[in-house]
Design goal:
single chain; 574 residues; mainly alpha; two-stranded antiparallel ribbon; two-stranded antiparallel sheet; 25 helices; 62% helix
Protein backbone atom coordinates (compact mmCIF):
# COMPACT_ATOMS: atom_id res chain seq x y z
CA UNK A 1 0.00 0.00 0.00
CA UNK A 2 1.32 3.43 -0.96
CA UNK A 3 -0.18 6.71 0.32
CA UNK A 4 0.90 9.59 -1.87
CA UNK A 5 -0.92 12.51 -0.36
CA UNK A 6 -0.81 11.01 3.07
CA UNK A 7 -0.08 7.93 5.04
CA UNK A 8 -3.28 6.44 6.38
CA UNK A 9 -4.14 3.03 7.73
CA UNK A 10 -7.21 1.36 6.29
CA UNK A 11 -7.79 -1.59 8.57
CA UNK A 12 -11.44 -2.63 8.88
CA UNK A 13 -11.09 -3.45 12.57
CA UNK A 14 -8.66 -4.83 15.08
CA UNK A 15 -6.72 -6.72 12.49
CA UNK A 16 -3.21 -6.45 11.18
CA UNK A 17 -2.66 -3.19 9.31
CA UNK A 18 -1.52 -3.28 5.68
CA UNK A 19 2.03 -2.28 4.92
CA UNK A 20 2.55 1.47 4.68
CA UNK A 21 5.00 3.49 2.64
CA UNK A 22 5.12 7.20 3.29
CA UNK A 23 4.95 10.00 0.78
CA UNK A 24 8.39 11.01 -0.48
CA UNK A 25 8.61 14.20 1.58
CA UNK A 26 7.36 12.50 4.74
CA UNK A 27 9.86 9.67 4.34
CA UNK A 28 12.89 11.94 3.85
CA UNK A 29 14.11 12.54 7.40
CA UNK A 30 16.78 14.98 6.17
CA UNK A 31 13.85 17.36 5.58
CA UNK A 32 11.25 15.83 7.88
CA UNK A 33 13.60 16.06 10.92
CA UNK A 34 11.58 13.42 12.78
CA UNK A 35 8.77 15.96 13.12
CA UNK A 36 6.34 13.60 14.86
CA UNK A 37 8.84 11.29 16.49
CA UNK A 38 11.57 10.84 19.01
CA UNK A 39 14.83 12.20 17.54
CA UNK A 40 17.15 9.16 17.45
CA UNK A 41 20.78 9.31 18.49
CA UNK A 42 21.84 8.44 14.96
CA UNK A 43 20.36 11.78 13.81
CA UNK A 44 21.75 13.92 16.64
CA UNK A 45 25.06 14.50 14.93
CA UNK A 46 25.60 18.10 16.05
CA UNK A 47 27.71 19.18 19.03
CA UNK A 48 26.05 20.80 22.07
CA UNK A 49 27.60 24.14 21.06
CA UNK A 50 26.18 23.91 17.52
CA UNK A 51 22.69 23.05 18.73
CA UNK A 52 22.81 25.85 21.31
CA UNK A 53 24.10 28.34 18.74
CA UNK A 54 21.33 27.45 16.32
CA UNK A 55 18.67 27.76 19.02
CA UNK A 56 20.03 31.09 20.24
CA UNK A 57 20.20 32.36 16.66
CA UNK A 58 16.43 32.19 16.61
CA UNK A 59 16.09 34.82 19.33
CA UNK A 60 17.45 37.55 17.05
CA UNK A 61 13.91 38.84 16.64
CA UNK A 62 13.19 42.56 16.93
CA UNK A 63 9.69 42.05 18.29
CA UNK A 64 11.40 42.41 21.67
CA UNK A 65 12.31 45.98 20.68
CA UNK A 66 8.70 46.75 19.72
CA UNK A 67 7.26 45.00 22.80
CA UNK A 68 9.59 46.80 25.20
CA UNK A 69 8.88 50.14 23.58
CA UNK A 70 5.10 49.61 23.65
CA UNK A 71 5.23 48.69 27.37
CA UNK A 72 7.32 51.70 28.42
CA UNK A 73 5.42 54.12 26.15
CA UNK A 74 2.10 52.95 27.64
CA UNK A 75 3.02 52.63 31.32
CA UNK A 76 6.18 54.71 31.86
CA UNK A 77 9.75 53.70 32.65
CA UNK A 78 9.36 52.52 36.27
CA UNK A 79 6.32 50.31 35.73
CA UNK A 80 7.69 49.13 32.39
CA UNK A 81 11.07 48.16 33.85
CA UNK A 82 9.39 46.25 36.69
CA UNK A 83 7.16 44.44 34.18
CA UNK A 84 10.05 43.43 31.93
CA UNK A 85 12.17 42.18 34.85
CA UNK A 86 9.26 40.30 36.44
CA UNK A 87 8.50 38.54 33.17
CA UNK A 88 11.94 36.98 33.48
CA UNK A 89 10.18 34.41 35.68
CA UNK A 90 9.79 32.64 32.33
CA UNK A 91 13.38 31.53 32.94
CA UNK A 92 12.23 29.26 35.78
CA UNK A 93 9.57 27.52 33.69
CA UNK A 94 12.07 26.99 30.87
CA UNK A 95 14.65 25.05 32.88
CA UNK A 96 12.75 21.75 33.33
CA UNK A 97 11.24 21.90 29.85
CA UNK A 98 14.62 22.46 28.18
CA UNK A 99 16.24 19.63 30.14
CA UNK A 100 13.38 17.26 29.33
CA UNK A 101 13.48 17.99 25.59
CA UNK A 102 17.27 17.64 25.41
CA UNK A 103 17.31 14.48 27.54
CA UNK A 104 14.48 12.62 25.85
CA UNK A 105 14.90 13.89 22.26
CA UNK A 106 11.31 15.15 22.08
CA UNK A 107 9.77 18.38 20.86
CA UNK A 108 7.37 20.52 22.89
CA UNK A 109 4.25 18.75 21.69
CA UNK A 110 5.53 15.28 22.57
CA UNK A 111 6.72 16.51 25.98
CA UNK A 112 3.27 18.02 26.59
CA UNK A 113 1.57 14.69 25.83
CA UNK A 114 3.45 12.92 28.58
CA UNK A 115 3.57 15.83 31.01
CA UNK A 116 -0.04 15.75 32.09
CA UNK A 117 -2.08 16.40 28.92
CA UNK A 118 -2.63 13.03 27.26
CA UNK A 119 -2.61 12.09 23.58
CA UNK A 120 -5.53 14.25 22.39
CA UNK A 121 -5.30 16.74 25.24
CA UNK A 122 -2.10 18.09 23.73
CA UNK A 123 -3.92 18.66 20.42
CA UNK A 124 -5.23 21.93 21.84
CA UNK A 125 -1.74 22.99 22.89
CA UNK A 126 -0.53 22.24 19.36
CA UNK A 127 -3.00 24.89 18.18
CA UNK A 128 -1.84 27.29 20.89
CA UNK A 129 1.75 26.75 19.84
CA UNK A 130 0.94 27.05 16.13
CA UNK A 131 -0.84 30.34 16.83
CA UNK A 132 2.28 31.58 18.63
CA UNK A 133 4.41 30.84 15.57
CA UNK A 134 2.16 32.53 13.02
CA UNK A 135 1.36 35.52 15.26
CA UNK A 136 5.04 36.19 15.79
CA UNK A 137 5.92 35.41 12.18
CA UNK A 138 3.42 38.10 11.19
CA UNK A 139 4.82 40.52 13.76
CA UNK A 140 8.43 39.92 12.70
CA UNK A 141 7.46 40.00 9.02
CA UNK A 142 5.76 43.37 9.52
CA UNK A 143 8.98 44.73 11.02
CA UNK A 144 10.98 43.44 8.04
CA UNK A 145 8.48 44.92 5.57
CA UNK A 146 8.79 48.29 7.32
CA UNK A 147 12.57 48.12 6.84
CA UNK A 148 12.20 47.28 3.14
CA UNK A 149 9.80 50.17 2.73
CA UNK A 150 12.23 52.59 4.38
CA UNK A 151 15.29 51.35 2.51
CA UNK A 152 13.89 50.57 -0.94
CA UNK A 153 10.49 52.24 -1.09
CA UNK A 154 8.85 48.83 -1.45
CA UNK A 155 5.13 49.02 -0.57
CA UNK A 156 4.58 47.25 2.74
CA UNK A 157 1.88 45.05 1.19
CA UNK A 158 4.46 43.69 -1.27
CA UNK A 159 7.02 43.56 1.53
CA UNK A 160 4.75 41.24 3.50
CA UNK A 161 4.77 38.79 0.60
CA UNK A 162 8.53 39.02 0.14
CA UNK A 163 9.20 38.41 3.84
CA UNK A 164 6.99 35.34 3.66
CA UNK A 165 8.51 33.79 0.53
CA UNK A 166 12.15 34.40 1.46
CA UNK A 167 12.19 31.85 4.31
CA UNK A 168 10.60 28.91 2.45
CA UNK A 169 13.74 27.42 0.80
CA UNK A 170 15.62 27.47 4.12
CA UNK A 171 12.84 25.96 6.23
CA UNK A 172 12.11 23.36 3.55
CA UNK A 173 15.57 21.82 4.07
CA UNK A 174 15.27 21.41 7.83
CA UNK A 175 17.74 21.52 10.70
CA UNK A 176 20.89 21.28 8.59
CA UNK A 177 20.07 24.43 6.61
CA UNK A 178 18.82 26.26 9.69
CA UNK A 179 22.06 25.61 11.56
CA UNK A 180 24.12 27.03 8.68
CA UNK A 181 21.97 30.15 8.29
CA UNK A 182 22.09 30.93 12.01
CA UNK A 183 25.87 30.49 12.15
CA UNK A 184 26.63 32.55 9.02
CA UNK A 185 24.42 35.50 10.01
CA UNK A 186 25.43 35.70 13.66
CA UNK A 187 28.40 38.12 13.26
CA UNK A 188 26.34 40.64 11.27
CA UNK A 189 23.54 40.44 13.81
CA UNK A 190 25.83 40.95 16.82
CA UNK A 191 27.47 44.04 15.26
CA UNK A 192 24.08 45.50 14.32
CA UNK A 193 22.72 44.84 17.80
CA UNK A 194 25.53 46.56 19.72
CA UNK A 195 26.41 49.47 17.41
CA UNK A 196 23.36 51.76 18.03
CA UNK A 197 23.90 51.65 21.80
CA UNK A 198 27.60 52.34 21.34
CA UNK A 199 26.81 55.41 19.23
CA UNK A 200 24.31 56.75 21.78
CA UNK A 201 26.78 56.19 24.63
CA UNK A 202 29.20 58.61 22.94
CA UNK A 203 26.79 60.98 21.19
CA UNK A 204 24.00 61.25 23.78
CA UNK A 205 25.45 60.25 27.17
CA UNK A 206 22.60 61.93 29.04
CA UNK A 207 19.87 60.06 27.17
CA UNK A 208 19.73 57.13 29.60
CA UNK A 209 19.23 59.43 32.58
CA UNK A 210 16.34 61.14 30.81
CA UNK A 211 14.91 57.75 29.89
CA UNK A 212 14.71 56.67 33.54
CA UNK A 213 12.36 59.64 34.19
CA UNK A 214 10.20 58.97 31.13
CA UNK A 215 6.48 58.94 31.97
CA UNK A 216 5.31 57.35 28.73
CA UNK A 217 3.20 58.81 25.95
CA UNK A 218 -0.20 58.01 27.47
CA UNK A 219 0.10 60.10 30.64
CA UNK A 220 1.02 57.19 32.93
CA UNK A 221 3.80 59.16 34.64
CA UNK A 222 7.31 58.13 35.65
CA UNK A 223 6.23 56.65 39.00
CA UNK A 224 5.19 53.09 39.73
CA UNK A 225 1.63 51.96 38.94
CA UNK A 226 0.31 48.55 39.97
CA UNK A 227 -2.10 48.35 37.04
CA UNK A 228 0.56 49.49 34.59
CA UNK A 229 2.93 46.90 36.04
CA UNK A 230 0.30 44.17 35.69
CA UNK A 231 -0.68 45.02 32.12
CA UNK A 232 2.97 45.42 31.08
CA UNK A 233 3.93 42.07 32.58
CA UNK A 234 1.06 40.44 30.69
CA UNK A 235 2.38 41.74 27.39
CA UNK A 236 5.94 40.62 28.17
CA UNK A 237 4.74 37.17 29.27
CA UNK A 238 3.23 36.56 25.83
CA UNK A 239 6.70 35.34 24.86
CA UNK A 240 6.55 32.41 27.28
CA UNK A 241 5.81 29.94 24.48
CA UNK A 242 9.19 30.80 22.93
CA UNK A 243 10.56 27.88 24.96
CA UNK A 244 8.73 25.64 22.48
CA UNK A 245 10.83 26.96 19.61
CA UNK A 246 13.96 26.48 21.68
CA UNK A 247 12.83 22.90 22.39
CA UNK A 248 12.44 22.19 18.68
CA UNK A 249 16.22 22.59 18.43
CA UNK A 250 17.17 21.17 21.83
CA UNK A 251 15.72 17.76 20.92
CA UNK A 252 18.75 17.36 18.65
CA UNK A 253 21.16 17.72 21.56
CA UNK A 254 23.54 14.73 21.65
CA UNK A 255 23.45 12.35 24.58
CA UNK A 256 25.01 13.64 27.76
CA UNK A 257 28.20 11.76 28.62
CA UNK A 258 30.83 12.04 31.31
CA UNK A 259 33.08 13.78 28.78
CA UNK A 260 30.57 16.43 27.65
CA UNK A 261 28.47 16.79 30.84
CA UNK A 262 29.52 20.35 31.67
CA UNK A 263 29.26 21.57 28.07
CA UNK A 264 25.90 19.81 27.69
CA UNK A 265 24.40 21.40 30.79
CA UNK A 266 25.69 24.86 29.88
CA UNK A 267 24.37 24.56 26.32
CA UNK A 268 20.92 23.41 27.46
CA UNK A 269 20.66 26.19 30.05
CA UNK A 270 21.83 28.88 27.62
CA UNK A 271 19.76 27.76 24.64
CA UNK A 272 16.68 26.82 26.68
CA UNK A 273 15.70 29.34 29.36
CA UNK A 274 18.75 31.51 28.63
CA UNK A 275 16.91 33.33 25.85
CA UNK A 276 14.85 35.08 28.55
CA UNK A 277 17.83 37.08 29.82
CA UNK A 278 18.76 38.25 26.35
CA UNK A 279 15.11 38.94 25.57
CA UNK A 280 14.63 41.14 28.64
CA UNK A 281 17.76 43.11 27.77
CA UNK A 282 16.48 43.58 24.21
CA UNK A 283 13.08 44.79 25.42
CA UNK A 284 14.67 47.38 27.67
CA UNK A 285 17.16 48.34 24.95
CA UNK A 286 14.41 48.63 22.35
CA UNK A 287 12.44 50.93 24.64
CA UNK A 288 15.54 53.10 25.13
CA UNK A 289 16.19 53.41 21.39
CA UNK A 290 12.52 54.27 20.79
CA UNK A 291 12.66 56.94 23.51
CA UNK A 292 15.83 58.44 22.04
CA UNK A 293 14.16 58.71 18.62
CA UNK A 294 10.72 59.82 19.85
CA UNK A 295 11.09 63.57 19.33
CA UNK A 296 12.56 63.10 15.86
CA UNK A 297 10.31 60.45 14.33
CA UNK A 298 7.14 60.60 16.46
CA UNK A 299 5.40 57.87 18.45
CA UNK A 300 4.14 55.74 15.56
CA UNK A 301 7.53 55.34 13.88
CA UNK A 302 9.38 55.10 17.20
CA UNK A 303 7.51 51.85 17.83
CA UNK A 304 8.82 50.45 14.53
CA UNK A 305 12.37 49.15 15.21
CA UNK A 306 13.81 50.36 11.90
CA UNK A 307 13.31 54.10 12.64
CA UNK A 308 15.09 54.18 16.05
CA UNK A 309 17.94 52.17 14.54
CA UNK A 310 18.41 54.74 11.77
CA UNK A 311 18.31 57.69 14.17
CA UNK A 312 20.82 56.07 16.54
CA UNK A 313 23.30 55.27 13.74
CA UNK A 314 22.99 58.58 11.87
CA UNK A 315 25.65 60.54 13.87
CA UNK A 316 28.36 58.04 12.89
CA UNK A 317 27.18 56.61 9.58
CA UNK A 318 25.37 59.57 8.03
CA UNK A 319 23.69 58.55 4.78
CA UNK A 320 24.76 54.95 5.34
CA UNK A 321 22.62 54.71 8.48
CA UNK A 322 19.53 53.69 6.51
CA UNK A 323 21.08 50.75 4.57
CA UNK A 324 23.01 49.61 7.65
CA UNK A 325 19.87 49.63 9.81
CA UNK A 326 17.85 47.91 7.08
CA UNK A 327 20.48 45.17 6.74
CA UNK A 328 20.43 44.55 10.49
CA UNK A 329 16.62 44.39 10.60
CA UNK A 330 16.36 42.07 7.60
CA UNK A 331 19.04 39.69 8.93
CA UNK A 332 17.40 39.67 12.37
CA UNK A 333 13.97 38.93 10.97
CA UNK A 334 15.16 36.17 8.64
CA UNK A 335 16.90 34.51 11.59
CA UNK A 336 13.73 34.42 13.68
CA UNK A 337 11.20 33.78 10.95
CA UNK A 338 12.93 30.66 9.68
CA UNK A 339 12.48 29.41 13.26
CA UNK A 340 8.84 30.53 13.41
CA UNK A 341 8.07 28.81 10.12
CA UNK A 342 9.96 25.65 11.09
CA UNK A 343 8.29 25.33 14.50
CA UNK A 344 4.91 26.10 12.99
CA UNK A 345 5.31 23.23 10.53
CA UNK A 346 6.04 20.89 13.44
CA UNK A 347 3.03 21.99 15.48
CA UNK A 348 0.63 21.75 12.55
CA UNK A 349 2.01 18.30 11.71
CA UNK A 350 1.31 17.15 15.25
CA UNK A 351 -2.18 18.62 15.20
CA UNK A 352 -3.36 17.20 11.88
CA UNK A 353 -1.77 13.77 12.30
CA UNK A 354 -3.99 13.17 15.33
CA UNK A 355 -7.14 14.70 13.87
CA UNK A 356 -6.96 13.20 10.36
CA UNK A 357 -4.65 10.18 10.87
CA UNK A 358 -2.69 11.43 7.87
CA UNK A 359 0.80 12.84 7.47
CA UNK A 360 1.82 14.17 4.05
CA UNK A 361 5.07 15.56 5.46
CA UNK A 362 6.13 18.49 7.61
CA UNK A 363 7.04 20.70 4.67
CA UNK A 364 3.46 21.02 3.44
CA UNK A 365 2.43 22.68 6.69
CA UNK A 366 5.01 25.40 6.11
CA UNK A 367 2.64 26.84 3.52
CA UNK A 368 -0.37 26.68 5.85
CA UNK A 369 1.49 28.49 8.61
CA UNK A 370 2.89 31.14 6.30
CA UNK A 371 -0.49 31.65 4.62
CA UNK A 372 -2.11 32.48 7.96
CA UNK A 373 0.81 34.75 8.91
CA UNK A 374 0.62 36.61 5.59
CA UNK A 375 -3.11 37.19 6.12
CA UNK A 376 -2.44 38.67 9.56
CA UNK A 377 0.22 40.96 8.12
CA UNK A 378 -2.11 42.21 5.41
CA UNK A 379 -4.70 42.92 8.13
CA UNK A 380 -2.10 45.13 9.90
CA UNK A 381 -1.88 43.14 13.13
CA UNK A 382 1.09 45.32 14.16
CA UNK A 383 -1.38 48.04 15.08
CA UNK A 384 -3.10 45.71 17.59
CA UNK A 385 0.15 44.48 19.17
CA UNK A 386 -0.50 45.19 22.87
CA UNK A 387 -4.03 43.82 23.11
CA UNK A 388 -3.28 40.74 21.01
CA UNK A 389 -0.22 39.73 23.02
CA UNK A 390 -1.92 40.50 26.33
CA UNK A 391 -4.77 38.14 25.45
CA UNK A 392 -2.49 35.40 24.11
CA UNK A 393 -0.31 35.37 27.20
CA UNK A 394 -3.23 34.19 29.35
CA UNK A 395 -3.45 30.97 27.36
CA UNK A 396 0.27 30.49 26.73
CA UNK A 397 1.30 30.88 30.35
CA UNK A 398 -1.39 28.46 31.59
CA UNK A 399 -0.04 25.79 29.20
CA UNK A 400 3.68 26.26 29.91
CA UNK A 401 3.27 26.54 33.69
CA UNK A 402 1.14 23.37 33.76
CA UNK A 403 3.84 21.44 31.88
CA UNK A 404 6.59 22.81 34.13
CA UNK A 405 4.54 21.96 37.23
CA UNK A 406 4.26 18.36 36.08
CA UNK A 407 7.99 18.05 35.39
CA UNK A 408 9.10 19.74 38.61
CA UNK A 409 6.40 18.84 41.14
CA UNK A 410 4.41 15.84 39.98
CA UNK A 411 7.35 13.72 38.91
CA UNK A 412 9.31 14.43 42.05
CA UNK A 413 6.32 13.57 44.25
CA UNK A 414 5.64 10.36 42.34
CA UNK A 415 2.29 11.65 41.03
CA UNK A 416 3.34 10.98 37.44
CA UNK A 417 5.70 8.47 35.78
CA UNK A 418 9.42 9.27 36.15
CA UNK A 419 9.90 9.37 32.38
CA UNK A 420 8.10 11.05 29.44
CA UNK A 421 5.70 8.72 27.64
CA UNK A 422 4.58 10.20 24.32
CA UNK A 423 3.27 7.25 22.29
CA UNK A 424 -0.43 6.86 21.60
CA UNK A 425 -0.32 3.16 22.52
CA UNK A 426 0.32 3.97 26.19
CA UNK A 427 -1.59 7.23 26.75
CA UNK A 428 -5.13 8.14 27.67
CA UNK A 429 -6.80 10.51 25.23
CA UNK A 430 -6.99 13.26 27.87
CA UNK A 431 -5.18 13.60 31.18
CA UNK A 432 -7.08 16.00 33.47
CA UNK A 433 -3.96 16.87 35.48
CA UNK A 434 -2.28 19.15 32.96
CA UNK A 435 -5.10 19.63 30.45
CA UNK A 436 -7.68 20.40 33.11
CA UNK A 437 -5.33 22.76 34.91
CA UNK A 438 -4.63 24.66 31.68
CA UNK A 439 -8.29 24.93 30.66
CA UNK A 440 -9.44 26.14 34.09
CA UNK A 441 -6.52 28.55 34.52
CA UNK A 442 -6.80 30.08 31.05
CA UNK A 443 -10.61 30.37 31.24
CA UNK A 444 -10.54 32.20 34.57
CA UNK A 445 -7.67 34.45 33.49
CA UNK A 446 -9.33 35.35 30.18
CA UNK A 447 -12.52 36.32 32.03
CA UNK A 448 -10.35 38.46 34.28
CA UNK A 449 -8.57 39.93 31.23
CA UNK A 450 -11.91 41.14 29.86
CA UNK A 451 -12.70 42.90 33.15
CA UNK A 452 -15.21 40.50 34.69
CA UNK A 453 -13.51 40.58 38.11
CA UNK A 454 -12.54 44.24 38.23
CA UNK A 455 -9.61 46.41 37.08
CA UNK A 456 -6.91 44.83 39.23
CA UNK A 457 -7.80 41.28 38.21
CA UNK A 458 -7.80 42.51 34.61
CA UNK A 459 -4.30 43.90 34.98
CA UNK A 460 -3.00 40.77 36.72
CA UNK A 461 -4.85 38.17 34.65
CA UNK A 462 -1.60 36.48 33.63
CA UNK A 463 -0.61 36.07 37.28
CA UNK A 464 -3.96 34.38 37.85
CA UNK A 465 -3.29 32.01 34.95
CA UNK A 466 0.17 31.11 36.25
CA UNK A 467 -0.93 30.64 39.85
CA UNK A 468 -3.93 28.47 39.03
CA UNK A 469 -1.97 26.25 36.62
CA UNK A 470 0.84 25.81 39.13
CA UNK A 471 -1.54 24.73 41.92
CA UNK A 472 -4.14 22.80 39.94
CA UNK A 473 -1.79 20.51 37.98
CA UNK A 474 -0.38 18.68 41.03
CA UNK A 475 -3.71 18.95 42.87
CA UNK A 476 -5.63 17.20 40.08
CA UNK A 477 -2.86 14.61 39.69
CA UNK A 478 -3.10 13.90 43.42
CA UNK A 479 -6.91 13.77 43.39
CA UNK A 480 -6.93 11.27 40.50
CA UNK A 481 -4.05 9.25 41.90
CA UNK A 482 -2.05 9.81 38.70
CA UNK A 483 -4.41 7.36 36.98
CA UNK A 484 -4.59 9.14 33.65
CA UNK A 485 -0.90 9.31 32.81
CA UNK A 486 -0.60 5.76 31.46
CA UNK A 487 -3.39 3.71 29.90
CA UNK A 488 -1.14 0.66 30.26
CA UNK A 489 2.45 0.16 31.38
CA UNK A 490 5.28 0.37 28.89
CA UNK A 491 7.03 -2.75 30.13
CA UNK A 492 10.23 -2.43 28.14
CA UNK A 493 11.06 1.22 27.61
CA UNK A 494 9.24 2.58 30.65
CA UNK A 495 11.00 0.18 33.00
CA UNK A 496 14.41 0.83 31.49
CA UNK A 497 13.92 4.59 31.79
CA UNK A 498 12.70 4.48 35.35
CA UNK A 499 15.24 2.16 36.88
CA UNK A 500 18.94 2.54 37.49
CA UNK A 501 20.43 5.68 36.03
CA UNK A 502 17.63 6.37 33.63
CA UNK A 503 14.91 7.74 35.84
CA UNK A 504 13.65 11.25 36.33
CA UNK A 505 14.87 14.52 34.98
CA UNK A 506 17.47 14.90 37.68
CA UNK A 507 19.37 11.76 36.71
CA UNK A 508 21.50 10.76 33.78
CA UNK A 509 19.06 9.35 31.23
CA UNK A 510 19.33 5.79 30.03
CA UNK A 511 19.24 5.76 26.24
CA UNK A 512 18.53 2.64 24.22
CA UNK A 513 20.00 2.72 20.73
CA UNK A 514 19.16 -0.82 19.65
CA UNK A 515 16.56 -0.79 16.87
CA UNK A 516 13.37 -2.68 16.14
CA UNK A 517 11.68 -2.92 12.76
CA UNK A 518 8.15 -1.53 12.63
CA UNK A 519 5.76 -4.25 11.48
CA UNK A 520 3.75 -1.72 9.44
CA UNK A 521 6.24 0.49 7.56
CA UNK A 522 9.10 -2.05 7.90
CA UNK A 523 11.59 0.63 8.93
CA UNK A 524 13.97 0.24 11.85
CA UNK A 525 13.67 2.74 14.72
CA UNK A 526 15.36 3.08 18.08
CA UNK A 527 13.46 1.57 20.99
CA UNK A 528 12.01 4.83 22.44
CA UNK A 529 10.04 5.24 19.19
CA UNK A 530 8.60 1.72 19.32
CA UNK A 531 5.44 0.38 20.99
CA UNK A 532 4.22 -3.20 21.36
CA UNK A 533 1.02 -3.60 19.32
CA UNK A 534 -1.50 -6.39 19.96
CA UNK A 535 -3.16 -5.72 16.59
CA UNK A 536 0.12 -6.25 14.75
CA UNK A 537 1.34 -8.85 17.24
CA UNK A 538 4.68 -7.10 17.15
CA UNK A 539 6.45 -3.76 17.29
CA UNK A 540 5.01 -0.62 15.72
CA UNK A 541 6.66 2.78 15.38
CA UNK A 542 5.06 5.77 17.06
CA UNK A 543 3.99 7.43 13.79
CA UNK A 544 2.37 4.33 12.28
CA UNK A 545 0.58 3.91 15.61
CA UNK A 546 -0.67 7.51 15.46
CA UNK A 547 -1.89 7.18 11.89
CA UNK A 548 -3.82 3.94 12.40
CA UNK A 549 -7.44 5.07 12.23
CA UNK A 550 -9.18 1.71 12.56
CA UNK A 551 -7.40 -0.26 15.28
CA UNK A 552 -10.00 0.75 17.85
CA UNK A 553 -7.31 1.41 20.46
CA UNK A 554 -7.37 -2.28 21.30
CA UNK A 555 -4.09 -1.98 23.19
CA UNK A 556 -5.71 0.31 25.76
CA UNK A 557 -8.86 -1.78 26.16
CA UNK A 558 -7.56 -5.36 26.22
CA UNK A 559 -6.88 -6.99 29.58
CA UNK A 560 -3.44 -5.97 30.87
CA UNK A 561 -3.19 -3.64 27.88
CA UNK A 562 -3.03 -6.54 25.44
CA UNK A 563 0.71 -6.25 25.60
CA UNK A 564 3.02 -8.13 23.33
CA UNK A 565 6.41 -8.39 24.96
CA UNK A 566 9.26 -7.17 22.82
CA UNK A 567 12.65 -8.79 23.22
CA UNK A 568 14.78 -6.70 25.55
CA UNK A 569 17.50 -5.03 23.46
CA UNK A 570 21.10 -4.55 24.33
CA UNK A 571 21.23 -1.47 26.55
CA UNK A 572 23.92 1.13 26.15
CA UNK A 573 24.38 3.46 29.08
CA UNK A 574 25.52 7.04 28.56
Amino acid sequence: MTDTAAAKAATPGPASAPRRSYAKLAADESREDYSLRYAPHSFRRWSPATVAGTALGGIAYLADFAIGASIVFAYGFTSGLAAILTAAVIFLTGIPIARACATYGLDMDLITRGAGFGYFGSTLTSLIYASFTFIFFALEGSIMAQAMHQAMGLPVEIGYLVTTLIVIPIVFKGMGALAKVQAWTQPVWLIGLVLPFLVLAFQAPDAWGAFTHFGGTEGAGAGFSWTGFGFGTGIALSLIAQIGEQADYLRFMPAKTAANSRTWRTAVLAAGPGWVIIGAAKQLGGAFLAFAALETVGKTHALEPIAPQIEALRPWLGSFALPAAALFVIVSQVKINVTNAYSGSLSWSNFFSRITHRHPGRVWYIFLNLGIALTLMELDMFAMLGKLLGFYSNVGIAWIVAVAADLVINKRLGLSPPYIEFKRAYLYAVNPAGFGAMVIASTVSILAFFGLFGPYAEAFSTFIAAGLALVLCPLIAWATGGKYYLARPNGVWGASRAEGSGGGLGAQALEVTATHTCSVCETAYELPDIADCPVQSGPICSLCCSLNAACGDVCRKAPQGGAVVLPMPTVRRF
